[in-house]
Each structure stands twice: as C-alpha cells, then as structure tokens.
Amino acid sequence: xxxxxxxxxxxxxxxxxxxxxxxxxxxxxxxxxxxxxxxxxxxxxxxxxxxxxxxxxxxxxxxxxxxxxxxxxxxxxxxxxxxxxxxxxxxxxxxxxxxxxxxxxxxxxxxxx
Length: 113
Fold this sequence. Notes:
Elements: E1 13-16, H1 32-36, E2 44-47, H2 52-60, E3 66-68, H3 71-75, H4 79-85
Parallel strand pairs: 1-2, 2-3
C-alpha cells in the first residue's frame, strides 16, 4: 500500500471492509481504514456496511477522507437527507439486483413522499 504514495497523480484509493468474517484467515485485515490510513497519505475512500454513525466516526477519527455507500444509495435516493436528519434508511431488495426495469432501482420512496 505504501507504494501507492509514489503515484502523485492518483485521485484516491477506494478500499472495502471485509464482507465476510475474517477471524480464521491469518493474513486478513479486519479494520481496513484503521490499518491502511497510516500507510497511505493520499485521499482514502472506504466502503463496506457503513451506517451513519460508523461512517461519521471513521471520518472524525481521520481514518478516511470519505465514506462510500453502494446499496444504501440504491434504496435511499435521498440518503444524504436521511443522514443529515438522522432518519431511518430503507432496506434494499436484493431480489431486484441486476434485473431489467426500474423496480428496485428508481422506485424507492423519498422521505418527503
């Protein structure tokens, strides 16, 4: 990871927290942002099952420069407003992933109707 610091025109590094338990994997890193932030001096974007509080904590602790959200953005077209208001997040429908049409992509409700 330190070698990425040699690439001065690199926009950012985007890392993802493990999506499965890593307790039995001896070389696995459990807290990606905490592990790599001291090693990478550029802009660091982190992703992986973050909610509002956990995402804010990572930013406040300086472990990442940004938190990316994938599935929550699909099911919450107003995710930024929900984060600001502390509102509940709608759950995504995995049955609609990679299917044709708008169902599961553009039909999730907004907070204000």
